[in-house]
Design brief:
By secondary structure, the protein is mainly beta. Helix content is about 15%, strand content about 40%. The protein has five helices and 30 strands. It starts with a helix and ends with a strand.
Length: about 500
């Protein structure tokens, strides 16, 4: 090839290379300006999958959901932190205290109090006859001798008619409160020198110490100094004076111990109880243990040492709960990868009957009357709440994402109060929440299970709350719950 041709070829090659390098540099700079603020791909990578972020169904906003109208969007007022330490369990109680004076201090000599006259005593019947004479202006008057003859019975009937009480002629439960007298509390039996007031009792997780707090004064008082370190769960009886502590012993076994205030010693239950629940009236408890052939379910009573085995199964993974009729229900432990079932337990013949089944990731909460089941289903967008009517075999979708474990039934057997996650990311529920790998940021709602209507009780507060172990006071004035993030005890005003 001639030398001149070679020179021309090399020159063209160099020029073309320069042009290509310039174009490449321009393209890189252009790409940099459009992507320099984006997140590198490896930071977006989630090996578990993020699923969908669910906000429109759960988070109260200006967007109206046509299926579930939010009645209002109140502020965070009404949320109160009760403890600054972790608690293992809590209960509502009508507790007793000395009768206070008007300024709130306990009176050295309490003011006279109004008491119901005891119609079972002769003196009480005399006092009732005297009141009948005065109230009815009887002429001739009844002889206040404590004997209820025809004239006294007729006078009682006239008194009942006057006060719109069922006319029985007896000093029955509806009539007795109308016959009262003022007495000096110091002359009363010891139990009558006190008044009942709504309160809470709770167990400190670190120490096992028991506290009580009257809801009107908010004053906390430690009522037990017995130390049981690292209590995971605590269950109270109906009087609040017996507690079942559950904790892991130094040898790694799950220990359950019953202690009673003022008692010299307690009682250890069997080791490694896998599931534990208390009846609605808090007089009985049920627990499940494993043996070589499967599981055994046992019922016990607070204050009694006798135990009755009422259930056996080759299947080992169960969760139990009670309705208000002392009936026990068993649900298979949930996972988003498996379908679950719920059964009712006949404690007499020791058999179970299937109520609900074939539900992916099933978790449940039975209503007080045992007629409805609040349950969740694992879906691609998170756990979704529904209600199953046991007698009608019908299901109603509540169009809400959440878990029954974050709800509590109202005594009306219709409404439920729930801590609802404002945002749900992913779909591996309830597993991730049970394992503590995911924590929710809740707001609180009241849901009518008949209509599906929701009313928001409180939005997200300044402190992130993940509500669990919800319970109500007797008159449903307050909702109480434990914040799963730090196990502190909280309340929410409902009225």
């Amino acid at each position: 090839m001639p030398r001149k041709t070679i020179i021309i070829f090399i020159t063209v090659f160099i020029i073309m290379g320069a042009i290509l390098m310039g174009v490449s540099s321009w393209l890189k700079n252009k790409d940099k300006t459009t992507t320099e603020n984006t997140t590198p791909w490896y930071q977006d990578f989630n090996p578990f999958g993020t699923g969908n972020t669910t906000t429109t169904t759960n988070e109260p906003s200006s967007t109206t959901n046509p299926d579930n109208t939010i009645e209002e969007t109140p502020s965070t007022f009404g949320l109160h932190q009760i403890t600054d330490f972790a608690v293992a369990g809590a209960t509502f109680l009508e507790d007793t205290r000395p009768i206070p004076k008007n300024n709130g201090e306990v009176a050295a000599t309490p003011e006279p109090v109004k008491t119901i006259i005891d119609a079972k005593t002769k003196e009480g019947r005399k006092e009732i006859q005297t009141i009948l004479n005065t109230t009815l202006s009887l002429k001739p008057a009844l002889t206040a001798d404590g004997n209820f003859g025809k004239k006294t019975i007729e006078a009682i009937k006239n008194f009942q008619k006057l006060n719109n009480i069922p006319t029985t002629g007896l000093i029955d439960d509806k009539t007795a409160p109308y016959f009262t007298k003022l007495v000096d509390p110091s002359t009363l039996p010891k139990e009558n020198q006190f008044e009942k007031a709504p309160s809470l009792r709770f167990v400190e997780r670190v120490t096992g110490h028991i506290y009580k707090m009257f809801l009107d004064t908010k004053v906390k008082e430690k009522i037990s100094n017995s130390t049981i370190p690292s209590v995971y769960q605590a269950f109270f009886n109906n009087k609040g004076d017996s507690v079942i502590y559950r904790y892991v012993s130094t040898n790694g076994t799950i220990t359950s111990f019953i202690a009673t205030l003022g008692a010299s010693k307690g009682e250890f239950l069997v080791q490694d109880i896998s599931d534990f629940s208390v009846s609605k009236d808090k007089t009985k408890f049920f627990y499940i243990t494993e043996n070589s052939s499967g599981t055994i379910g046992t019922i016990g009573e607070f204050g009694a040492t006798k135990r009755n085995n009422v259930f056996s199964s080759p299947f080992t993974e169960w969760l139990s709960e009670w309705d208000g009729n002392q009936k026990i229900y068993l649900t298979t432990k949930p996972s988003y990868t498996a379908t679950g079932s719920m059964f009712s337990l006949n404690t007499t013949n020791k058999t179970i009957s299937k109520i609900l089944g074939g539900v992916l990731g099933l978790t449940t909460s039975i209503s007080p009357k045992g007629s409805l089941v609040l349950y969740s289903t694992s879906t691609e967008t998170g756990p979704r709440l529904s209600v199953f009517d046991i007698s009608k075999h019908t299901t109603k979708d509540l169009n809400t994402y959440g878990l029954p474990e974050k709800c509590v039934w109202s005594n009306d057997n219709i409404n439920v109060y729930c801590a609802i996650p404002s945002v749900i990311i992913g779909n591996q529920y309830p597993d991730l929440w049970y394992q503590g790998l995911v924590s929710f940021d809740d707001y609180f709602v009241k849901i009518n299970t008949q209509t599906g209507d929701k009313s928001t009780l409180s939005n997200k507060g300044e402190k992130s709350l993940d509500g669990t172990y919800l319970f109500l006071d007797t008159e449903e004035r307050s909702l109480f719950f434990i914040n799963k993030k730090d196990s502190t005890l909280w309340s929410l005003d409902l009225r």
